[in-house]
Write a structure and sequence with these properties.
The protein has 623 residues and is mostly beta strands. It is built from one helix and 45 strands. It is globular, with a radius of gyration of 27 Å.
C-alpha cells in the first residue's frame, strides 16, 4: 500500500496571435489581449523579422474571393503583440500562385525590407513581383517583372526567392521555370538564377536545366562567400509512381552569373525512398551544411501503393558527404510537415520549426513543433503547440497547423509565423483559415516555469517523486534532510531514501529563462510501513489558464502524461452544486489546447476523464 501526494503551482502566460478568416486579427492570452480589423478574409503569414527596437515585422498574403482580390499584408507588432501598424498591397486576380515564396524578409542596403512572390491573374500567366517596404510599412517599390518571361523565352514560372549580394548590394532571384517546348510536363521544369541591380533591373540570367529526362525545381539560395552562392534544387524524373530514387537533392556552388564552381547531388542508397520539399539550407562553422526535407517512403500494394513522407533533418560534412540524418516527427503520415527554417543560436546549437504532422501517429491532432538540436545531431528538446483540435473525433479532416518562418528574438526566445486551418468550423459558418503567430521564450515554452510534483511514500522510508513541472529545463531538489541535487527535464522520476520518521520540508525549484524560477515547498512523512492515504487520485495531469477566466473567453488547457490506452479523453464540467454542466472532448496528445466552454459566472469543478475513469479534478472560477 502507498501514500500519494500531488502539488502544483498554477501560473502560465500564453502568447498566441491568430489572423482570422472573418477579417479579424485576434490576439489572445494574458498579454496579447486586443482585436484588430482588416478588410480581407483568408490570410497566411510567410515571414517574420525583429527590428532593432524589438518590434516585429510580419509579412503574409491575403485572399478575398468574393471580391476577386489578393495581395500582400505587412503588420508591425510590439513586444506584447499589440498592433502598431499594417500595410496591404492589393492585386487583382486569382490566388493560385500567390505566396509561393521561399524567402525571409531581409534588410537591404537602404535599411528597407525586400520580399518576392509569384502572382497569376485569372487566365493570365504567372508574374514575379518584388516589393520593398520601409520599417514604417511604407511601400517604396512594387516591381512587376512582366518582361521576364519574354526576356528568358519562358512561358510559365512560379516559386521564387530573392537575396542581396553582400559584396555589391545587387540582388539574386532564384525561381522555378517551365520550358513549354518540352511535351512531358514533369521533365520540362528547370531553375533560373537572375542577377538584378539595386533597382531590380535584369543584369544577367542563368538557366539550370539538365536534360529532358530530368527536371529541377528551386528550393533555396544562400550566400556562401564573397560573390559566391549555394543554390539547392530538387532533381526528379517523370516516373514518380515507381520507387527507387525518383527525387533527390541537387546543390550547386555558383557565382553571381550562375557559373558552376561545384555541383553535386545528395541521396541515400536505400531503395523505395524519395527526397522532396528541401528547405532551410544552412552553412555550419565546420564547413558543412544543414537542410530539411521530406523523406518519402514507398508503400507497396497492400500497404497503400503510395508515398508517405517524414520530415527529416540532414547534415553534410565539409566534403559534402552525408554525416547524419534524423527524423523530426515520430510517425510516417500522408501530411506534408515542412520545416521551413533553421536558425543558429551559436556555432553548435540550432533550432528548426515546422507543422502539420500527426502527433504520435494519431489521427486526432496536428500542430507545430520547435526543435533544438546540436551540430552533431543530438536533439535537446522538442516543443509541441496547437491552437485547434478536432471537435468531433469522427470528422474526416483534422485541423492543419503549419510554420513558414522562425526568427530568434532579442530576449533569447523565438517567434514563429504560419497558418492554421480548422476545416470542421466550415459546417457552422465560423472562420476556418487563420494566420498564426506564436511567441516562445528561450526554452520554447509559452510562459514561465511552473513547479509541480507527485510523490509516493513507500516502505523503508523510501519516497518516489514524479516531477510534473512544466515550462522548465532544469530543477533543484532540496529533500529537507540536507540532501540537494540538480536534475534536467530529461529526468521525470527520482527516489530518495530518508533515514527515519519525520515531517520533511521538500523544496522543488523549476528554473526557466533569464533567471525565472518557480519554487514549490511541501512536506513528506517517510514511513517504515507506508500508511495508505490517497491525496490525489490518478496518474494523469492537466492544468488550465487563465483561472479565473472571463465568461465567454477561451480557456487554454495544458495536458501532460496521460495514458489513454485508446480511450476517449474529455473534460467534464460540474457546477458548485454538483450538477453535470457539459463535456468537452480534447485530443489525447500532450500539449496546449484552446477550448470555448459556454459557462456562466460561478465556480466549477472540472474532471479529466479517460473513458469513464476520472484521472484528476480541478476547480475553475468563471467571472
Amino acid at each position: 500500500m502507498t501514500k500519494r501526494g500531488f502539488y502544483l503551482n498554477m501560473r502560465c502566460i500564453l502568447k498566441v496571435i491568430l489572423l482570422q478568416y472573418c477579417c479579424l486579427l485576434t490576439v489572445l492570452g494574458q498579454e496579447f489581449n486586443s482585436t484588430f480589423v482588416f478588410d480581407h478574409k483568408q490570410v497566411v503569414f510567410s515571414s517574420v523579422k525583429e527590428m532593432g527596437d524589438s518590434t516585429y515585422i510580419i509579412a503574409g498574403q491575403y485572399l478575398n474571393q468574393a471580391e476577386d482580390r489578393i495581395g500582400t499584408l505587412y503588420i508591425k507588432l510590439d513586444q506584447q503583440g499589440n498592433l502598431i501598424d499594417s500595410l496591404q498591397v492589393a492585386q487583382q486576380g486569382s490566388s493560385y500562385f500567390l505566396g509561393s515564396t521561399r524567402n525571409e524578409l531581409f534588410f537591404n542596403h537602404k535599411g528597407n525590407f525586400v520580399v518576392t512572390f509569384s502572382h497569376a491573374k485569372s487566365g493570365v500567366l504567372s508574374r514575379q513581383h518584388i516589393q520593398e517596404i520601409t520599417p514604417n510599412l511604407e511601400l517604396v517599390s512594387d516591381v512587376v517583372l512582366d518582361t521576364l518571361a519574354e526576356y528568358l523565352n519562358l512561358t510559365v514560372f512560379s516559386g521564387s526567392m530573392i537575396i542581396q549580394n553582400e559584396l555589391d548590394s545587387t540582388y539574386l532571384m532564384f525561381f522555378t521555370a517551365v520550358d513549354t517546348s518540352v511535351s512531358t510536363a514533369v521533365n520540362r521544369n528547370g531553375c533560373n538564377l537572375v542577377h538584378l541591380d539595386k533597382d531590380f533591373r535584369i543584369i544577367h540570367n542563368k538557366r539550370f536545366f539538365l536534360n529532358h529526362n530530368y527536371g529541377l525545381s528551386m528550393r533555396e539560395i544562400i550566400q556562401y562567400a564573397d560573390d559566391e552562392f549555394l543554390v539547392m534544387m530538387r532533381r526528379f524524373n517523370g516516373h514518380n509512381t515507381q520507387p527507387n530514387h525518383n527525387s533527390f537533392t541537387q546543390i550547386c556552388r555558383v557565382n553571381a552569373n550562375g557559373d558552376h564552381i561545384w555541383p553535386f547531388g545528395v541521396w541515400e542508397s536505400t531503395d523505395n525512398q524519395m527526397d522532396i520539399n528541401q528547405r532551410a539550407l544552412t552553412i555550419t562553422q565546420d564547413g558543412g551544411l544543414l537542410y530539411t526535407y521530406h523523406k518519402g517512403y514507398w508503400l507497396p500494394p497492400g500497404s497503400g501503393n503510395t508515398w508517405r513522407y517524414v520530415p527529416t533533418l540532414r547534415k553534410l560534412d565539409s566534403n559534402r558527404q552525408i554525416e547524419w540524418s534524423i527524423e523530426l516527427t515520430d510517425s510516417i503520415g500522408g501530411y506534408y510537415s515542412i520545416f521551413s527554417d533553421i536558425e543558429a543560436i551559436n556555432d553548435t546549437l540550432f533550432v528548426t520549426a515546422g507543422g502539420t504532422y500527426r502527433v504520435n501517429g494519431e489521427l486526432g491532432q496536428s500542430g507545430g513543433r520547435l526543435i533544438q538540436f546540436t551540430l552533431d545531431g543530438q536533439v535537446l528538446w522538442e516543443r509541441d503547440f496547437f491552437h485547434f483540435s478536432r471537435i468531433n473525433p469522427n470528422f474526416q479532416y483534422i485541423p492543419s497547423h503549419f510554420i513558414n518562418d522562425l526568427a530568434l528574438t532579442s530576449d533569447g526566445g523565438f517567434i514563429l509565423v504560419g497558418g492554421t486551418i480548422h476545416y470542421e468550423l466550415e459546417q457552422t459558418g465560423e472562420p476556418t483559415d487563420y494566420g498564426w503567430v506564436v511567441k516562445l521564450n528561450c526554452l520554447g515554452f509559452l510562459g514561465p516555469p511552473e513547479a509541480g510534483v507527485h510523490y509516493i511514500v513507500e516502505n523503508d522510508y523510501l519516497v518516489n517523486f514524479v516531477n510534473t513541472s512544466v515550462q522548465a529545463d532544469c530543477y533543484t531538489w532540496d529533500f529537507g534532510d540536507g540532501t540537494v541535487i540538480e536534475t534536467t527535464d530529461a529526468q521525470d522520476t527520482l527516489t530518495h531514501h530518508y533515514s527515519g520518521f519525520g515531517n520533511y520540508p521538500v523544496q522543488l525549484i523549476a528554473h526557466g529563462c533569464n533567471g525565472e524560477a518557480d519554487t514549490l515547498v511541501f512536506y513528506v512523512s517517510p514511513q517504515l510501513h507506508a500508511n495508505p492515504q490517497t491525496v490525489t487520485e490518478g496518474e494523469g495531469y492537466f492544468t488550465f489558464f487563465p483561472n479565473p477566466v472571463v465568461s465567454g473567453n477561451p480557456l487554454y488547457v495544458y495536458l501532460k502524461g496521460v495514458a489513454t490506452q485508446g480511450k476517449e479523453v474529455q473534460l467534464r464540467f460540474y457546477n458548485n452544486s454538483g450538477q453535470h454542466v457539459t463535456d468537452y472532448p480534447i485530443a489525447s496528445s500532450q500539449g496546449t489546447y484552446m477550448i470555448h466552454p459556454t459557462l456562466a459566472s460561478g465556480v466549477y469543478h472540472v474532471s479529466l476523464m479517460v473513458g469513464n475513469e476520472v484521472l484528476q479534478s480541478r476547480k475553475l472560477v468563471v467571472d
